[in-house]
């Protein structure tokens, strides 16, 4: 794809060889323009290039391109497809579908799949293949688009009167939505070109035009294109000065990549040493290398939960956490910027794709749009408030699953502290959503914005000398860290520790039952993640201790950390 426009061209350096952004084995993007041929991944134990060529030569997939993908794991490393054709040859075990279906679901292809089964003379083998699909399929993908019996040449058996392979693939062509990819340019070099900046890089996909407003990620700098030239190697002239680093991604402001420090990784492990929770790795994403840590292992395909380790060759899903903000895309939105490699000591040990299921785009949470503002200093000091109140201000952040006991404990702690002349107030999740956050829902982004606002409000309470008791699920560690930073040293994380089974058994509002019945999407612990604190200031066990014991534990902590003696120690220190 070539982009044209005015402006001078520049001589670009050779491109880096990172295969995550320039796979050589297969075409790059799944979201093709409508006039381009349908890309069908041919998968199965015997799905090789020879089979693809034989089927194409026989006209079994007219107007489409068959991409030999074997067990489909190659699609994690490079290339992409719009649909899938699972081919089970006569000698293949139909149980092979069990490992293919979850991977196709990851790749967004399960609903755009046709199963072709070589049979001898009846439909028993086809029925067995469909049964294997149903047993392995995630919810919502209980059946392929079509399943057809064939002979070795892909022809319809004489005894079969239903639609054949050609008809099934035609249905695939008709129902597959193919959208153009978003504009993504991987920055490789930049130089000052007064009054603006010239950026050179590799086009990952999409289109841009003179006059478009762009944003660099993750630096969040905004400018407008004044000129552009080139093709896959593109030069942009911007209307203002920006400071761009190699590895940043240029996009249109209306369709920018996600900014996050945590994501769901779906990958194949390629090292003999098993991968475990807590392992430190190097993430390569679009040529940029970043340290990451395995926060949790969510699943290993073909093994019952819980997942404790990933062996060589296994397909797994893990939560990876970065120490810096990343710019990336969910693979389903932009394969070119949603594919990664994992390295250990410089060697590739895994390849996979990005999913943001259950996690928020943090761009709006870290973007500062207010300019020309100056803080107004207070003449009443923190020390004066402490002397008047007899205690320090602070934020006690109660976090835990729904029904863990957060609000119950916070309200009782408030009552007892108020009786002791403490300035204290509970900020409860449900109450806040009746007013300040009434315009927010429960999507990952709205959950994060909910906590950002509450964190800032709680910090104001603490600066006013109050003890703010916040009772919020606050499922994401990144959000709680932002609340900690807002409180500037007066933040105390209290983990209300009750496991999912105990909370679901309590279920005072009936929310878990409704979530299990599919009535409530994005419900924490069921269909959305909860990231438990790693090092809370205090943990209270509401499963094995009653309310009175937990309240006493919390009040003892408050007296120790924020009470009169603590205030005196802090003042003397």
CATH architecture of the largest domain: 3-Layer(aba) Sandwich
- Examine the coordinates and then state which fold CATH places here, giving the name of the CATH topology of the largest domain: Rossmann fold
> How many structurally independent domains?
4
SS summary, helix count? 15
Q: Which strand-content bin applies to the residues?
A: 25-35%
Q: How is this structure best described in words?
A:
The chain has 573 residues and is of the alpha/beta class. The chain folds into 4 domains: 38-175, Rossmann fold (3-Layer(aba) Sandwich); 184-255, Elongation Factor Tu (Ef-tu), domain 3 (Beta Barrel), CATH 2.40.30; 262-365, Translation factors (Elongation Factor Tu (Ef-tu), domain 3, Beta Barrel), CATH 2.40.30; 377-572, 3-Layer(aba) Sandwich (Rossmann fold). Helices cover 25% and strands 29% of the residues. The protein is built from 15 helices and 24 strands. The chain has helices at residues 49-57, 74-77, 97-106, 124-136, 165-175, 363-366, 382-389, 406-419, 429-432, 444-463, 477-487, 500-506, 511-516, 547-562, 564-572, and strands at 38-43, 64-70, 83-88, 113-118, 146-150, 184-193, 196-205, 213-217, 221-230, 233-238, 249-252, 258-269, 275-276, 280-285, 288-300, 309-310, 315-328, 339-344, 347-355, 394-399, 424-428, 467-471, 491-497, 538-541. It has a 6-stranded antiparallel β-barrel with strand order 6-7-10-9-8-11. The protein has a 6-stranded antiparallel β-barrel with strand order 12-17-15-14-18-19. Helix 10 (444-463) runs parallel beside helix 11 and helix 14 (547-562) runs parallel beside helix 15. The termini are far apart.
